[in-house]
Design brief:
- By secondary structure, the chain is α/β, with parallel strands linked by helices.
- Helices cover about 45% and strands about 10% of the residues.
- It is built from 6 helices and 4 strands.
- Strands 2-1-3-4 form a 4-stranded parallel beta sheet.
Length: about 200
C-alpha cells in the first residue's frame, strides 16, 4: 500500500432530505476501507452545498465516516466547493503540496479527479469506488431529470427555447475551449442570467 498522509473523499450530490446517494455511500465505504488499510492521519470529505440542499456534502459525509468508525478528530472538512476543481484547490490550500494524498471517488470519475489534482499541484493517487453497471443508467436518468427541471425553471422565467439553445451552445463552446469533456462534473454551474 502506498504511503498515505491524507485521504480526500469527493462528494456527490445529496438527495432530497439531505440523504446520501448510492454513489456517495460507495465512496464513503471505499474511503473507510482505505483508512483501515493505511491508517492515514487525515480524512478530508469534500463538498459544499449543491442543488439547493440545506447541508453540505462534507457534513453528511463526516457523519457517515464517524458512524463507520473513523475518529472525528482526524476528519477535516472541506465544505466550500461545488465542483471537483474547487475540491482540489481547497484541499491543496488545507493540505499543501508535500503530503501524499489518496483521492477517493467513483471509478468513472477518477480520471477527471486526478487531472484536477495535477492541475493544482496535489501529490495524489486515485482509489476508485466500484460503480455497478446499473448505477450508470440511474446517474444518467437523474441528470436528465435535473436538466428537465432547469429547463422548466428557465421557461417559467420567460426564457425562450431559442435562448435556451443559445445558452447551451455557448456553454458547450466554452467547455470545448477549456478542454472540458461532456462527462466532466459541471453540476455547480448556472447559465448566465440564471439566478445564483
Amino acid at each position: 500500500m502506498e504511503k498515505t498522509d491524507a485521504i480526500i473523499v469527493l462528494g456527490h450530490r445529496l438527495l432530497p432530505g439531505n440523504l446520501p446517494s448510492d454513489d456517495l455511500k460507495r465512496r464513503i465505504d471505499r474511503a473507510v476501507a482505505l483508512w483501515r488499510e493505511t491508517n492515514a492521519p487525515i480524512v478530508m470529505p469534500c463538498g459544499g452545498i449543491t442543488h439547493e440542499r440545506q447541508r453540505t456534502e462534507a457534513e453528511v459525509m463526516r457523519e457517515m465516516l464517524v458512524e463507520r468508525g473513523v475518529p472525528g478528530d482526524i476528519i477535516h472538512l472541506e465544505d466550500k466547493s461545488r465542483i471537483t476543481l474547487e475540491n482540489m484547490l481547497n484541499a491543496y490550500e488545507l493540505l499543501g503540496p508535500d503530503r501524499r494524498v489518496a483521492v477517493v471517488s467513483s471509478d468513472y470519475h477518477m480520471d477527471m479527479a486526478l487531472k484536477d489534482c495535477r492541475a493544482v499541484g496535489l501529490n495524489a493517487y486515485g482509489v476508485g469506488a466500484e460503480t455497478p453497471d446499473t448505477a450508470y443508467r440511474d446517474e444518467m436518468r437523474a441528470r436528465l431529470n435535473g436538466f428537465e427541471e432547469k429547463l422548466d425553471e428557465l421557461r417559467a422565467r420567460g426564457v425562450t427555447n431559442r435562448q435556451i439553445i443559445d445558452m447551451f451552445m455557448e456553454r458547450a463552446r466554452e467547455a470545448h475551449e477549456k478542454g472540458i469533456r461532456p462527462e466532466d462534473n459541471l453540476h455547480g454551474r448556472k447559465p448566465d442570467g440564471a439566478e445564483k
